[in-house]
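Recall the central idea of this unit: under ordinary conditions, the amino acid sequence of a chain determines the structure it adopts. In this exercise we apply that idea directly, starting from the sequence alone.
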Amino acid sequence: METLLALVPVWGAYLLGTASPGPSNMAIMATAMSQGRRSALLLAAGVISGSLCWALLVATGLSTLLLAWAEAVTLIKVVGGLYLLWLAVKAARSAARSDSPALQQDARVSVSGAALYRRGLMMHLSNPKAIMVWMAIMSLGLQPGAATSVLPAIVGGCALLGVAVFSGYALLFSTPVMVRGYRRCRRGIEGILALCFTAAGLKLLFSR
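Accordingly, the structure predicted from this sequence is:
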């Protein structure tokens, strides 16, 4: 019981960080509204996988070596920043069009599930802040003398929360009401998405 109570703040911190607005959540929302539930769930699966990769990296202690090698962190920031800017350009081009091909049924079918999964995975793996978040979570949960079951409980609990949050966004924003709203406000939504990706990308590129 004491172990469970000690893990509640850890899971709470992860839940707040995961559910708060960010590039990944914005991308899942936009994909759900424009391409449907299946596409959004595939994108969410990539994001969740990326989060688990960083969790395992921190859990095995490899993150310490990575952070000690400044060039590696810089490379991740550059790749991540450029990738987000590329997504921003795609969103901006979509916002500039009067008619979006993403709204056509055949356009939905043509989107590769593997490509959507890779996009979600890349968005999370190219974000070095994910290492910091997981290190903070592990530091909060892995106190001296903690039981061996605490580590898998942290990773497993956060994984379930990630599935619930990201899949929840995919399911919520793929409802008919949200899709109709997207059709009416598509250009504005894509424009906001482009701004979010641009801000996140530039922040990564120019962060120290």
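The mean pLDDT is 80.
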